[in-house]
Amino acid sequence: MKKAERIGGNVASYVDDRTGAAKWLRKNLTKVFPDHWSFMLGEIVLYSFIILLLSGTFLTFWFDPSQREVVYEGSYEPLENIKMSAAYASTLHISFDVRGGLLMRQIHHWAALIFMAGMIAHLMRVFFTGAFRKPREANWLIGIGLVTLGIVEGFLGYSLPDDLLSGTGIRIAEAIIQALPVVGSYLAFFAFGGAFPGEAFIPRIFTVHVLLLPGIFLALITIHLMLVWYQKHTQYPGPGRTEKNVVGYPLMPIYMAKAGGFFFIVFGVTAFLGAVASINPIWLYGPYNPGQISAGSQPDFYMGWLDGLVRMAPPIETHAFGHTISWNILIPGLIIPGILFTLMALYPFIEAWMTGDKREHHLLERPRNNPNRTAIGAMSLAFILVVLINGGNDIIATHFALTINQIMWFTRIGVIVIPPLTFVITKRICLSLQRADREKVLHGRETGRLVMLPHGEFIEVHEELTPAQKFTLTQHEQPPALEVPREDANGVLNPQGLKGKLRARFSQAHVEQVPAPTESEAKALESGHH
Amino acid sequence: MSNESNEIAKFQDPGLPEHVHRKTDVDPKAADRAERQVAILFILSALSTVLAIYSYIFIPDDKFFFLPIMGDTNAHQLFLGLGMAFALLFIGLGLVHWAKTLMPDTEVIAERHDFRSPDEDREDFVRTVKEQAAAAGLGRRSLIKRTLGLALGVSALTPLVLLRDLGPLPKKKLEKTSWKAGTRLVTDPGDRPIRPEDLEVGAVAQVLPELVPGKVRHLSDIAKDAVLLIRLRPNEFQLNAERLSWTHDGIIAFSKICSHMGCAVALYEQQTKHLLCPCHQSTFDVTRAAKVIFGPAARPLPQLAITVDADGFLVAQQPFNEPVGPSYWERSS
């Protein structure tokens, strides 16, 4: 026996004597994970979270979360002798006087952007492939929680340096709190320890940013992963893959090496961005002063859609009985985002209700094979995209020589017109793709090879698909629409009322499909030929 | 599909495809080559770490050099970062290359287990819960249940009450600014009083109320007191008599704090005489008492009545006649 084996054996024996974990460990070390590029999106999020923890810890060693006024005396000359908060001064110190400090700041900010973008991409993957269906609804809800908290965490993070840009963002957040009916001004005074901006806010959000929210993230991510582990990963349909099995590679060694390697690649790419791509150059913005602002004030992209909504809101306020309600803030700032996130969280349950499907699903769906869901997703994305465009209307105006008014009116109308249009178009595209699949299965792949037959006719040679390809393109279910009973056992008409009618209508829309070809059809075609 | 007749057969699952051997599986030379490639990647990583540490120690952090696209670049930061990035990247690439070329790539099938427990287990569970609950008297002793509910519910109030000292009550603070009748307008920055002739037609200036001796100016004061002075030709105004009397010799003063969400309304278009808030593009017409002509703001910017004092300096005639800044519940107009 080699020395390494002996040491390994001793460690394993020590652990098992005290936990009895040998069997469990052996089973889980060979746990099977299916392989697909789209399964790496969630991994990117996990890895950037680890990068955020590491780089963030580094930054806390120098960052001074205080709004105490100091006079800057560091090495960045343009701001010398200028009054600023200790938070801003220490951020300058990290950027200019701590070696590697700017690199870490930029890695931290880039990792935050990758974290958010990765979450959104992962969410889209889960949505469009139907991975949220039973039994994974809980993980969907945790995911929505993580996205929501991620937006808050990112906002608090870029608010900490207390520069002119981020201070403006806090000002807007304060206005949203202040706009809440009845309790708004009280909550604002509690949050800020008095009138805006005060000296309490930065220290408070620092605690939330580095302790409270990361703790919640850690807990939620742990549950999220434990559920993935316990429920086993979903897989794409294909030969040999069923609802009852999972096909892939064992955790040890190949998945460990691939996932571990991917962590280093994500970290490496983030560090590369931090090294070459400047981000949030706070020294150019100057310290926060509520009487100043810079043109082209823009939040990070995951806040941009909210800002776009606020920008396009019509100027409506209600003044009655000595009170004011700012609809121009409440509707775009709270009500619409609230509705959007609630619908998103409830979607697995809404879809299960529409389809009446109570079964477990472990095989993913190709987006085209569920046209209604794909169209709903595309519609939501179109909405977010239109409002995001409006969130950058000033930048777009200067870059494309348009007026703010043109963009604002385009998006004000577009936000109502474009999403439904997107729904219809996406659904048609999905059905067309299904039709194309059908053609391919029944008549083979178009090879582009033209052949002249002896009697002079030209035909294109179609190449028959392999049995595996045929199976992959036709294995999906196409359940019929729900039938709503016209009358119940006692002869009462339409027993489920309007709800039943609505459900039947939704179900109808949801099952609109191009029939998948069957082997029988293929055989019939074959025998009909020549 | 279950509801179809037997005549219709779906395409059958041909099962997992045959495992195709990679070159490294069959050719020992290819495998050796792959091993060397992985090793080279790991060595490149180690070299990159050397670059990172070398840059940290030996490249001074005030050296800049010119790079296309990136412009003037700090050498210390760039090479430290690149060293770190490539050290990580090459480890990752090495691991993935190792996994892809040399580790077994046979797909494995694992069975899924049903999540639903057998019916007897479920019934057993429900029975146990019921029995234990009954044993504890949860069903019978409703007094205990209700008082416990009360105690738990009420106990949640303490943490809420404890948060009370987070801040003072707003009282009238949102309504009041530091502007009083006779307060001089002073420049920001500089704190110098202003005479009308300091402003040319078309000029803008940010001003603050003159500090009462012995007081300091906090950011929370600026957040309410900031005022924008704009000078037009007197005949360009389209104001009613009262508002016109609040101007002085073509100089008009507005709160600089946006009536929408409190950003500084700092962009003045001299040609159109519009004030634009860069946050949400609310646009105010200076000639018509900052009437909102575009964007989400619902109210004009509050106008500050100004005049000159005996020494010829600009002063406020009276405090703002309405709260400045964004709306809130207690605001009456």
TrEMBL record, chain A:
Region feature Disordered, mapped onto this chain: 509-530
Q: What keywords is this UniProt entry annotated with? A: Cell membrane, Iron, Membrane, Metal-binding, Translocase, Transmembrane, Transmembrane helix, Transport
Q: Where in the cell is it found?
A: Cell membrane
A GO term, aspect molecular function = oxidoreductase activity
**Which source organism does the UniProt entry give?**
freshwater metagenome
Q: Which positions fall inside the Cytochrome b/b6 N-terminal region profile domain?
A: 11-237
The alphabetized list of GO BP terms reads:
respiratory electron transport chain
- Locate the transmembrane regions by residue number: 44-63, 109-128, 140-160, 172-196, 208-230, 262-284, 329-350, 371-389, 409-430
Q: Name one GO cellular component term.
A: plasma membrane
Work out whether the entry's keyword set contains Coiled coil.
no
Biased composition regions of type Basic and acidic residues, renumbered to the chain: 520-530
Classification via InterPro entries: Cyt_b/b6_N (IPR005797), Cytb/b6-like_sf (IPR027387), Di-haem_cyt_TM (IPR016174)
Name recorded for this polypeptide: Unannotated protein
Q: One Pfam family of this protein, by short name?
A: Cytochrom_B_N_2
User: How does the record say this protein sits in the membrane?
Assistant: Multi-pass membrane protein
The record ties this protein, via SUPFAM superfamilies, to: Transmembrane di-heme cytochromes
TrEMBL record, chain B:
Give one Pfam family, short name only: QcrA_N
Which ranges carry the Rieske domain? 224-315
Q: Which cofactor does it need?
A: [2Fe-2S] cluster
Q: Write out the entry's keywords from A to Z.
A: 2Fe-2S, Cell membrane, Disulfide bond, Electron transport, Iron, Iron-sulfur, Membrane, Metal-binding, Oxidoreductase, Respiratory chain, Transmembrane, Transmembrane helix, Transport
Q: Which GO terms describe its molecular function?
A: 2 iron, 2 sulfur cluster binding; metal ion binding; oxidoreductase activity
Q: Please give the chief subcellular localization of this protein.
A: membrane
Tell me the membrane topology, using the record's own terms: Multi-pass membrane protein
Name of this chain's protein? Rieske iron-sulfur protein
Species assigned in the record: freshwater metagenome
